[in-house]
Design brief:
elongated, 3 helices
């Protein structure tokens, strides 16, 4: 019975991460489709970006962070599912 929970947790995590990746791909496609290069106004857009961002760091997501998130999401789903199952079985008794 517990193997079923682990498999459900892994499948749920795959669906959530797959949805996140699909959303990133679709939004990237929409941004690419609506992009119009403009030579005359190109410097002004870069100047605007450079003046607006005065500090900060751009983070690249490493594969280990994604794997850790996947495992954490699977564990959270597993424990929530097991807790709910135990609570429902106690209520039936």
């Amino acid at each position: 019975m517990r193997v079923r929970y682990v498999i459900e947790a892994l499948l749920f995590s795959l669906v959530v991460i797959g949805g996140w990746v699909a959303w990133a791909v679709v939004s990237g496609m929409m941004l690419t489709r609506s992009y119009v290069p403009d030579i005359v106004e190109s410097y002004s857009s870069v100047e605007h970006l450079q003046s607006e961002v005065s500090f900060g760091v751009v983070y690249n997501v490493h594969w280990s962070i994604l794997a850790g998130g996947f495992i954490a999401l699977a564990a959270l789903y597993y424990f929530a599912r097991a807790w709910l199952s135990n609570r429902l079985s106690a209520r039936k008794s």
